[in-house]
Amino acid sequence: MGRQILVVGFDGIGDRPSKELNGMTPLEAASKPTIDWLASRGAQGIMDPIAPGVIPGSDTAHLALFGLDPFKVYPGRGPFEAIGAGAVLEPGDIALRGNFASVDSNLVVIDRRAGRSEYGLDELVRFLSKNITEIDGVEVRFYRATEHRVAIVLRGRGLSDKVSDTDPHVEGQRISISKPLNDSEEARRTAEVINKLSIEIHNILKDHEINRERVEKGLPPANVILMRGAGKMPHLKKIWELDRIEIKKAAAISATALIKGVTKILGFEVIHPQGATGGLNTNVASKVRAARDMLDKGYDLVYLHFKGTDSASHDRKPREKKEFIERCDEALSRLILEFADNIVIAITGDHTTSSELGQHTSDPVPLLIYSKDVFYDALGRFSERSARVGVIGRIRGSDLIYILSDLAGRQEKFGA
Ligand code: ZN
Ligand code: ZN
């Protein structure tokens, strides 16, 4: 029986020196006695979440952190956007990204985003969910995503993602007919379902009261959904199916739909603690409590995810990022004191999000590993800068779970 593993994942933790913080990164500028205490007896390094020079999304990066190769298993944005919008996908499901859009009576697209106005869209998604539940024996589900976007999931036997979009991608053209992209029966059938669905959506939305209200308000009607990017949900290896690793029970604590969805597919029990929002205003104490509960319950791997670092970076607010790290550090202090000597701890993130650029970059992510018998560098402060000289050197995201499971005594030897 090995030791337990705690991974604290600060979304978008890595950053670049910030003018607002006198040339320091938010992690460097943060006063974080708990994490720095771990750094005084731990090992640091940098990690390319996917590969050097590849800019990760949160979904692809998390697949890598839990031992998978996103280049091999990532099914495209459709399924993962659906997951982000709250769908629970099964292998074989087809997911499409969609826009609410406006067409005229000849189905010519007038506005590809229905004026980007969200007015009444929640209600339209509820209405669609109630009134279109299947087409030709294929289950249909709708999920509201951000702004004018929706995700559509098709579930049934013999479906294919090799179908073209109904989104013509330009205005002034009729909505496109989805076509099979190979000569399989599956692709032909899926395209047919999508075309019937497309017409059905228009038929029940065109005279909907919400659309009358939208037109009265001078907004373009949301009378069609343009679909694109069909993707098929693959079977992904569960965390307990990874080669040579013995992790039977894993829990993920997160309030972010996409991360909840990805970890759930990988076999984690997902906990969304009370007061956790997936933003800067989240109840950090409540999340740390949930992590502690899962450790107490004997979970082999506990993943504690904080989204606020990424949100602050996208908003170009390095100071808020720094302060969020400080709040998390404080909330972590008792947990770390109590458990540090008996478990293996990693503090890291899924990618770098530059708070100057407001977007993800391919810069490697700082990584800190603490375990009472790790070969430590004792750099004493955890930051992008010190991580670059740490003993771990430079690894890939998919190496992390192997390194941690070895330190925890949860891995079988490879070979004789
Ligand atoms: Zn992320
Ligand atoms: Zn992000």
CATH superfamily of the largest domain: Alkaline Phosphatase, subunit A
Computed CA radius of gyration, to the nearest angstrom:
23 Å
The gross shape turns out to be: globular
Please list the strands of the largest sheet in the order they lie side by side. Answer: 10-9-11-1-12-15-2-16
Q: What is the architecture of the largest domain at the second tier of CATH?
A: 3-Layer(aba) Sandwich
Average of pLDDT: 95
**Low-pLDDT residue intervals, each spanning 5 or more residues:** none
Give the C-level CATH assignment of the largest domain: Alpha Beta
The helix fraction, in percent, is: 25-40%
Number of continuous helical runs: 14
Question: What is the fold named in CATH at topology level of the largest domain?
Answer: Alkaline Phosphatase, subunit A
Distance between the termini: 21 Å
Beta-strand segment tally: 16
Class based on secondary structure composition and strand pairing: alpha/beta
Q: Bound small molecules, which ones?
A: zinc ion
- In terms of quaternary structure, the protein is single chain
* Percent range for β-strand residues: 15-25%
| SSE sequence, one letter per element | EHHEHHHEEHEEEHHEEHEHEHHEEEEHEH
Give the domain tally: 2
Describe the largest sheet.
8 strands, mixed
Explain what the structure shows.
By secondary structure, the protein is an alpha/beta fold. The protein has 2 domains: 4-74 and 236-407, Alkaline Phosphatase, subunit A (3-Layer(aba) Sandwich), CATH 3.40.720; 80-232, no CATH class. 33% of the residues lie in helices and 21% in strands. It contains 14 helices and 16 strands. The strands form 3 sheets. An 8-stranded mixed β-sheet has the order 10-9-11-1-12-15-2-16, with helices on both faces. The radius of gyration is 23 Å and the shape is globular. The mean pLDDT is 95. The structure holds zinc ion (2 copies).
